[in-house]
């Protein structure tokens, strides 16, 4: 079962339940009593939209410059986020390859987001329906065990999202903040790095199966597990 929806569907709002239904009258409408005031036609204010809750967990991906040295520097190069909101799964990677590395190493690290995405998708497909998000990060942790590895896993957290069209932008902002924090913990700073671009409200994230590519960032919807698909069909 695909969870993606078309952009037009995002504009549809459910009908409000509990609206007064006019009663059926026999013999025609009754005249309004002289002393009774006609009902007010003042329009009621619309109810506020219900906020979505995005539950997520992040992990830092580090790169060891020299595996042969026990004192080798470990540089945070990426931040990974996995989350769930309203039955949807979401994942994202923010990547920042240091400029001082040699060209060959930089060329390999520039594809980190593709490698991490493959491991994340495999982890989501094998994840039991009731398992926490940490199960996904644990599988990624055991998949990356060489010079590129998971150096830290954050605590589960939640954030409120106004609407589905802002989910992608929220994930990108969380990724950027997590990567900046990981660099700060390693006593590194982002030099001349501008914040990630914001997503315009007129362009929702969930409009097609294609991924949302931003400079040094990737946000996508991972596949569901076979057990979840069977439960949804049943």
Summary tags:
234 residues; alpha+beta; seven-stranded antiparallel beta sheet; 5 helices; 25% helix; disordered N terminus
Describe, in plain words, how this protein is organized in 3D.
- With about 230 residues, the chain is an alpha+beta fold.
- The chain has one domain (about 50-234).
- The chain has helices at about 105-110, 110-125, 135-145, 165-185, 225-234, and strands spanning about 50-65, 75-85, 90-95, 150-155, 155-160, 210-215, 215-220.
- Helix 2 (about 110-125) crosses helix 3.
Shape: elongated
Helix content: 25-40%
- Quaternary state, please? single chain
The secondary-structure element order is: EEEHHHEEHEEH
Secondary-structure topology with pairs:
Layout: E1 52-64, E2 74-85, E3 88-95, H1 103-109, H2 112-126, H3 134-143, E4 148-153, E5 157-161, H4 167-185, E6 212-214, E7 217-220, H5 226-233
Antiparallel strand pairs: 1-2, 1-4, 1-5, 2-3, 3-7, 6-7
